[in-house]
Amino acid sequence: MLEAFNFRVLLDYLPLFLKGMWATAWLSGLSLAGALVVGTLACGGRLSRFRLLSALAGAYIEAIRSTPLLAQLYFLYFGLPSLGVRLPEYQTGILALSLNSGAYMAEIIRAGVLSVSWGQIEAAMAYGLNYFQRMRYVVLPQALGVTIPPLLGQAIVLVKDSALLSLISVFELTRAGQIITSERFMPAEGFFTTALLYLLIYYALKAFSSWWQKRLIFVQPA
Amino acid sequence: MWLYYFQQLVHTFPFFLKGLWMTVAVSGLSLIMGTMIGFTAGIVRASRVPVLGKLLFVYVDFMRGTPFLVQVFIIFFILPEWGLQLEAFSAAVLALTLYAGAYICEIVSGGITAVPPGQSEAAKATGLNWFQRMRHVVLPQAMKTILPPLVGQYVLLVKDSSVVSVIGVTDVTRVGWFTVQRIPEGLMVFGLVGLLYFVVCYPLIRLANQLEKRLRVDFGGL
Amino acid sequence: MRRWTQRLGVFALLAVFLCGLSVPAAADTLQEIVQRGELRVAVQTQGPPFSFVDKNGVRTGSSVEFCKLMAQEMGVKVKFLDYDWDGLIPALLSKKADLLAADMTATLKRALKVSFTEPFYYTGAVVFTKKGRAFKTIEDCNKEDVTIAVLLGSTGEAEAKRFFPKAKIKSYKGGGPLLINAVLAGHADIGVNDETAVVGQMQEFPPNSIEILPIRLSKQPLAFAVRPEDTHLLQWINLFFQWVREDGRYDQNINYWVKSLDWKKEH
């Protein structure tokens, strides 16, 4: 397959690949934002003193983590219509990714929050800070530092998981590769280009996270 | 009609069990070998060995930055061009092993770096050599940070193994795709697939949670 | 930033190096098949009537049975290697399989990369909809508010774009039954796929839920594929089809699997 690697045809399909990369970027961007919101909420619920809330959040996290994304996607796309809710593909996809990744985010954020030692919180209490002030000024800034690497890891997983959306007719990067495979029978060209573009996204995310981490350290001497 | 499909599904259940067995076999083997590779690589990386460390960066980046599907593709379809012709099953195990190894390498090296350097230095002062320090001082402490995410990674491994169905390993996801041709109730079929993954993954998740509770550490939190 | 570019550079170098390593081996595949006593066929499990796993868990269908017959004539065993669509072409090109047998349309673009046999069957893209919907003609379907479900990379996709330029196209992945599902669930108004596939697959759905419109969009040749250099094997397969057409085994297969629903009773 490699000796006949065709760069010329690849060039013809380059706009398609770039379009796919852009779609992957914004789909994962939105889902990432959604996942952070869902994750923070679920983590809040999990750490809550209310037993019911904590149990519910725990059940959500465990259910998501122990079933494949494919099954979750199918449930949202083919299952919800029979309950009378029919979402368009892009919304379904973003929802599925947010819910899926949100469960992992919740665990990551929780680990970060728990990493802040109890003494710090007691000290903040002694200063008379209320719950939100403690969270905002003491716990979260420290927790963020610990959570950036695993959050980055999860973001990368999310970007790659978004490839599954092609199952429900969403156009993205993996699909661009599949199109060149099926139209021109050029699998090597399709797969390697896809891989390279994902690798670019990966390095961009990595660069961003190390920049952010450095900035955090400057802001608050840990 | 639902009832009819359900009866059909019950009829095909033995194939699902066969598929589940394949999933467990592929992921189980990769889990063992991936752990060995991951620990070795993680220790090497955390010890900052000059050239090897750089190479490990490339390995981990490639595994984390490209879609697993592409890695499977390279191992199964491209390696034959360089003289390594593998059966679908061995190719699947190899791909999953290398993939899991990269993530486990991250977890292990992260865990080792989290052990305060004072520990290792103190051990050095007492005359322990590198191997003894690793074996008796650093690793036992690092295990506390390593174990929970490690088990979490095993869960991901089980679910990621579904990708190898692309090269014809008849795992539980593939059985699902076969069945949906005959029982076109995607929700029901993949609901069952999801349930079977749940059966394997849920105990692992509980185990991870238990380990996390028991091993919660607070370095220097005196 | 320099570190990232450096690492990408390492990948590029590695790729170039590995490309240089590959050595094309030349041998007569047909001789090899006879030598090893096994015909290796790459198939997909896209559903009835061509290739599917029946209710007993046995792989069967029109193409699968043709391949068994081929192996019988060669005097060798047959081994089916089952791949996803994504793995089908790579399997052939990387010599995992000698022959690719699916209900694959032999398009001119695809034929640039592999050698197709003489077409073994002609099918065409048809339009189907949920029973009771008011779609009758091409004009009914070619409207902005109509959504069409097709399979990614299929000829149905190309035909749908050609005939219904105004409509919205949704390309799914994962097999024909999924299209019917999408139409029944209301994610799409109509679906476009090969007639053979639609007829075979709608049998699994509730009776009278799907209706095929009396429009045939195209006529397309279905063919098996071999690697471009395997002319000997290609000629042999073409000859094989001439023989079975003459002695009735071709009609027997096609009548049983494709032109009727007789297979439903046993599979």
TrEMBL record, chain A:
Q: Which GO terms describe its cellular component?
A: ATP-binding cassette (ABC) transporter complex
ABC transmembrane type-1 domain: residues covered: 21-209
Q: What is this protein called?
A: Polar amino acid transport system permease protein
A GO biological process held by the record: amino acid transport
Coiled coil ranges (UniProt) are none
What PROSITE patterns does its record include? ABC_TM1
Record's bilayer topology term? Multi-pass membrane protein
The family database entries (InterPro entries) matched by this protein are listed as: AA_ABC_transptr_permease_3TM, ArtM/GltK/GlnP/TcyL/YhdX-like, MetI-like, MetI-like_sf
TM region(s), chain numbering: 20-43, 185-205
Keyword Acetylation attributed: no
Family statement drawn from the similarity comment of this UniProt entry: Belongs to the binding-protein-dependent transport system permease family. HisMQ subfamily.
Kindly give the Gene3D superfamilies that the UniProt entry links to this protein.
Answer: MetI-like (1.10.3720.10)
Q: Where in the cell is it found?
A: Cell inner membrane; Cell membrane
CDD domains to which the protein is assigned, alphabetical:
TM_PBP2
Record keyword Transmembrane present? yes
Give the UniProt keywords, A-Z: Amino-acid transport, Cell membrane, Membrane, Transmembrane, Transmembrane helix, Transport
Biological role:
Part of the binding-protein-dependent transport system for glutamine; probably responsible for the translocation of the substrate across the membrane.
GO molecular function, one example? transmembrane transporter activity
Q: What is its main location?
A: membrane
From TrEMBL, chain B:
Cite a single Pfam family from the UniProt record: BPD_transp_1
Q: Which GO terms describe its cellular component?
A: ATP-binding cassette (ABC) transporter complex
The record's annotation in Gene3D superfamilies points to: MetI-like (1.10.3720.10)
Which residue spans traverse the membrane? Answer: 20-44, 56-79, 91-116, 187-205
Domain (ABC transmembrane type-1) ranges: 20-208
Asked if the keyword Cell membrane belongs to this entry, the reply reads yes
User: Which compartments does it reside in?
Assistant: Cell inner membrane; Cell membrane
The principal localisation class reads: membrane
* GO BP: any one term: amino acid transport
InterPro entries tied to this protein = AA_ABC_transptr_permease_3TM (IPR010065), ArtM/GltK/GlnP/TcyL/YhdX-like (IPR043429), MetI-like (IPR000515), MetI-like_sf (IPR035906)
Record keywords, A-Z: Amino-acid transport, Cell membrane, Membrane, Transmembrane, Transmembrane helix, Transport
Record bears the keyword Cell inner membrane: no
* Record-level Gene Ontology MF annotations: transmembrane transporter activity
**According to the UniProt entry, where is the signal peptide?**
none
Membrane topology is: Multi-pass membrane protein
- What PANTHER family does the annotation carry? GLUTAMINE TRANSPORT SYSTEM PERMEASE PROTEIN GLNP, MEMBRANE COMPONENT OF AMINO ACID ABC TRANSPORTER
Per the entry, what this protein does is: Part of the binding-protein-dependent transport system for glutamine; probably responsible for the translocation of the substrate across the membrane.
Q: Which family does it belong to?
A: Belongs to the binding-protein-dependent transport system permease family. HisMQ subfamily.
Q: What is this protein called?
A: Putative glutamine transport system permease protein GlnP
Source organism of this protein record:
Desulfacinum hydrothermale DSM 13146
From TrEMBL, chain C:
Q: Does the keyword Lipid biosynthesis apply?
A: no
Which InterPro entries does this chain map to?
Answer: Solute-binding_3/MltF_N
Q: Which residues form the Solute-binding protein family 3/N-terminal domain?
A: 38-261
Keyword annotations for this protein, in alphabetical order, are: Signal
- The coiled-coil segments of this chain are none
Q: Enumerate the Pfam families for this protein.
A: SBP_bac_3
Signal peptide span: 1-27
Record-linked SMART domains = PBPb
Q: What is this protein called?
A: Amino acid ABC transporter substrate-binding protein, PAAT family
Species name: Desulfacinum hydrothermale DSM 13146
